[in-house]
Design a protein that fits this description.
By secondary structure, this protein is α/β, with parallel strands linked by helices. Strands 2-1-3-4-5 form a five-stranded parallel sheet, sandwiched between helices. 39% of the residues lie in helices and 14% in strands. It is globular.
Length: 168
């Protein structure tokens, strides 16, 4: 059993080291890294994590029709639980209108969740502006950044991102 314990200690040290690399690279400061089995689980954990506090009194979520299918399925499930989900329709270039986003915010809006870079059409959403709007209204902001990592500069603090999903 001592050998198993040593393996556990080594694994824990590697996770700590990996967390610190991610924290430094993304300038996370006072945030923490949660490892999951992949992007779908990361997105689900972020969205359900916010919404689970409101299962007894469902609230409002804002997203887009351009999200990954695994994420859209979460919103469908939340709608069955009584949540109201607003699906923003992007313009012809695939970009959402931040003025339209702000118009759809209600007193019940608890989450804005928008994919940063679309995995099919490649559009890049105005994440910093979306984060600013969310925080001005006291709303949690999640972005699926799987397609953004390695291609775009990510500064979670500067962009007002509360939850960011990545994949190795």
């Amino acid at each position: 059993t001592e050998g198993m314990y040593n393996q556990g200690v080594k694994a824990h040290m590697l996770l700590d080291k990996s967390s610190n690399v991610i924290i430094d690279a993304l300038k996370l400061k006072n945030k923490k890294v949660l490892f999951t089995s992949g992007a779908t689980e990361a997105n689900n954990t972020a969205i359900y994590g916010v919404c689970s506090a409101y299962y007894n009194e469902p609230k409002h979520i804002i997203t887009t029709y351009l999200e990954h299918a695994s994420v859209l399925n979460v919103y469908k499930d939340l709608e069955k639980r009584g949540f109201k989900v607003t699906y923003l329709i992007p313009n012809k270039e695939g970009i959402i209108d931040t003025i339209e986003l702000e118009k759809n915010i209600t007193n019940d809006t608890v989450l804005i969740s928008i994919m940063w870079v679309n995995n099919i059409i490649g559009t890049i959403q105005p994440i910093k502006e979306i984060g600013r709007i969310a925080h001005e209204h006291g709303i949690k902001f999640h972005t699926d950044a799987v397609q953004a990592i390695g291609s775009l500069k990510i500064d979670v603090e500067d962009m007002n991102i509360d939850m960011l999903s990545l994949s190795a």
